[in-house]
Amino acid sequence: MATGQSSYGSVNNAVYAMTTVQVQVRVPEKVVQEIDRWISEGRFANRSEAIKTVLVLYQEMDRTRKFYQTLLERSEQARRKPDLLIPLEEIS
Asked: Which label site among 15, 30, 50, 78 has the fewest CB atoms less than 10 Å from its CB?
């Protein structure tokens, strides 16, 4: 794979589009072995790429969780005011 690209495609491109700051991170040896396995399988070019991609995926998961919570709250509001809003259960 080309430098800056992984099997995660556009997620990884977003990682490289950002201004970066170097930080030191300590992780268990087994985690490093797992990352190295991903690299040997061609999923990532290096450890840095793997760690940055995992962090971006976590951020996206967190945003999705927050969005889902907003939808649940909106659905609860819809149950209280059915004339104005549609509950999630009614959307197909």
From this structure: 30
Instruction: Return the sign of the alpha-carbon dihedral for residues 16, 22, 28, 32.
Output: positive
- Residues 8-45 have pLDDT tens digits of 555 656 555 668 788 999 999 999 999 999 999 999 99
For 24, the domain range is 10-90
Domains: count for the chain: 1
Q: Are 38 and 50 in contact (CB under 8 A)?
A: yes
The type of residue at 76 is: E
Measure Cα distances from 13 to 28, 40, 75 in Å: 27, 20, 35
**Within a domain: residue 48?**
yes
- Under 8 Å between Cβ of 77 and 88: no
14: left (phi over 0), alpha (psi -120 to 50) or beta: alpha
State how far the Cα of 71 lies from the Cα of 67, in Å rounded to an integer: 6
- Indicate the DSSP class of residue 43: S
